[in-house]
Amino acid sequence: MRYADDFVVLARWIGGGVKRWIEEKLERDLGLKVNRDKTRIVLMEQEGESLDFLGFTLRYERDLQGRPHKYLNIQPAKKAVARLRDKIQAITGSGYKRPLQEAIEEVNTILRGWSNYFRYGYPRKVFRAVNYFVRCRFRRFLRNRSQRRSRPFRQGETLYAGLKRYGLMYL
After folding, report:
1. pTM for this one?
2. How far lies 26's CA from each of 16, 136, 170, in Å?
3. Most Cβ neighbours (<10 Å): which of 103, 134, 152, 165?
4. 148, 154 Cβ separation under 8 angstroms
5. Residue 54 belongs to what domain range?
6. In terms of domains, do 111 and 63 share one?
7. Contact 168, 104 (CB under 8 A)
């Protein structure tokens, strides 16, 4: 191995000796440089502790049914959601002067790739928030299209149904 960007060591207990042993193995045997500023030990069982790794946030949370045990919640990290929102905002911004169908196809491409990557774990809450954000962006996109009011949907059709009919993908 010549290059390692990020990795996580999971153990029931990690003390100073274990940390030094891991750093020594990486630096001496594998020839990698450890960034000691970014290296940290996270006690996952403590309240409020979480770990962001490869775009996911890992955190122990209480059981949803009120049972006395916790479960490992894995969901998209806030930074990953912010990057997705920026991409969608660029496509649905007022400077984007393409037809609605093209904008939907571009957004679908981004959403498909993003959802395939982040489908692991429990992303339902985040996916709902992304769906709401996309609908709001397309409402604004349609409002800013021209000086005359744009009516791409059928009479009485909601924004949700109209965008779905045009092929917008919902997560």
Report:
1. 0.80
2. 15, 48, 43
3. 134
4. no
5. 16-75
6. no
7. yes
